[in-house]
């Protein structure tokens, strides 16, 4: 009987720790999503200011590449990787490509002209920051899901121990 109470204490302590971890991960995820939202709003605001300064036809979908445009590479790419430290869990990583590495990389701000308002550069930086925070939020969400699975497994083990 003493062994069963010892096992129950270990399970309860682990459950407590995992629950606290889950709560801190939830808080971190909420903060990251708020940061994404604020960065997106700021980027949209700067984009609207740039459109106001340059004119509504100078910053519009007409400047975006079409199917007939020359090929180019993305400036930022998100890669999924299985992390051995996290026992096979997927983690995501954002990689920014520098122009010196690949000549097919174009700065998207240049689609709108050579002399663009500073607001367009600010918008680009805010959207980049939002992308970085979004990738971090996905990683935190993945950790949270794994923590919840562990909690459920421990609850089942606890129920089995108490049923004895």
From TrEMBL:
<dbReference type="Pfam" id="PF21730">
    <property type="entry name" value="Vma22_CCDC115"/>
</dbReference>
<protein>
    <recommendedName>
        <fullName>Vacuolar ATPase assembly protein VMA22</fullName>
    </recommendedName>
</protein>
<dbReference type="InterPro" id="IPR040357">
    <property type="entry name" value="Vma22/CCDC115"/>
</dbReference>
<dbReference type="GO" id="GO:0051082">
    <property type="term" value="F:unfolded protein binding"/>
</dbReference>
<dbReference type="GO" id="GO:0070072">
    <property type="term" value="P:vacuolar proton-transporting V-type ATPase complex assembly"/>
</dbReference>
